[in-house]
Design goal:
single chain, 24% helix, Nuclear Transport Factor 2, Chain: A, 7-stranded mixed beta sheet, 131 residues, 7 strands, 40% strand, alpha+beta
Amino acid sequence: MTVEEWIDAYGKAWRDRDPEAASRLFTEDAVYRSSPFRTPHVGTDGVREYWTIATRDQRNLDLRFGTPIVEPGGRRVAVEWWAIMDLADGTFGTLPGGLYLIFAPDGRCRELREYWHWKETRQAPPENWGT
């Protein structure tokens, strides 16, 4: 799996709110850090559990990814995302963020570090975002 294919599959899993599909993108011993201040989710079970909770109330997701920055060899990658969504409680918001990824030789992710910001408004990304 290439970096671009992995990002596309991650985006599809997010849009579909599919924890099972998301968990298949990670190694059995993966470390998923959804925030620098939270305890990491470990392994495919941890990813599945996090995604079940994190995506369950999201609706009408407009999700975009920027151009990934890939270390030669493709082992380490950084990529931005921009998400605009409705929530099940009738509120909505914008969630821009970034992923720092470390890949295993088989193309699955063995470590993910996520940074994001939440704003209770619908806001398009700025001009030239993601390049």
